Amino acid sequence: MKLYSAPGTCGTAMHIxxxxxxKPYEVEHLDFAGMKSPEYLKLNxxxxxxxxxxxxxxxEGLAILLHLVDQNPEANLGxxxxxxxxxxLYRWLAFLSATLHPFFWPYFMPMRxxxxxxxxxAVKDAAQVRVGTALDVIEAHLDGKTWMLGDEKSVVDxxxxxxANWAYGxxxxxxxxxxxxxxxxxxxxxxAVQRVHEEQGTSPKVDLAA
Length: 210
Known about the structure:
- The structure is a single chain.
- By secondary structure, the chain is α+β, with helices and mostly antiparallel strands.
- It folds into two domains: 74 residues, Glutaredoxin, CATH 3.40.30.10; 105 residues, Glutathione S-transferase Yfyf (Class Pi), Chain A, domain 2, CATH 1.20.1050.10.
- Helices cover 52% and strands 8% of the residues.
- It is built from nine helices and four strands.
- It has a four-stranded mixed beta sheet with strand order 2-1-3-4, with helices on one face.
- The model has no long low-confidence stretch (mean pLDDT 96).
């Protein structure tokens, strides 16, 4: 298996899951120019990461994570098709992919949402509010749960990890959400996650010593 990703992006989730699975894999980190190269566009015509090549190329984080769950049942990283809890796997992967993730775009790329640079601050403020509404939903869901799907960690937790890390620098940071912060701390202390950070040259945004 080969993952095309970029450090700090949501592709970090797939990188973590590949570490959890424990099978041989390779990661190639791309910069913006690399994502637009003719070679990469043959794999992913959208010119973005992540893309997983597992015999055939597969793009979109949600699809990649479901593929990894189904192709590696022994890793126990999500309910199998038809098993109890599978609907919740779909629900939360979709929520993270289609609700939480897009809310970050105006924060990181305000120029895509307003032509007037003087308004970029307002665009970013609005993005923080929208991210907060999604984190509120996740925070309430985690009451009484160890992980997003219950007692066992899953690909959903891995998907949450990079996005929750992005929000540690917000006006209302991830640390203001005790349940989410707890999950992120559990993950940041995981040796597999630490190996991913080391390979990427990144570090968790959460202060594990705090």
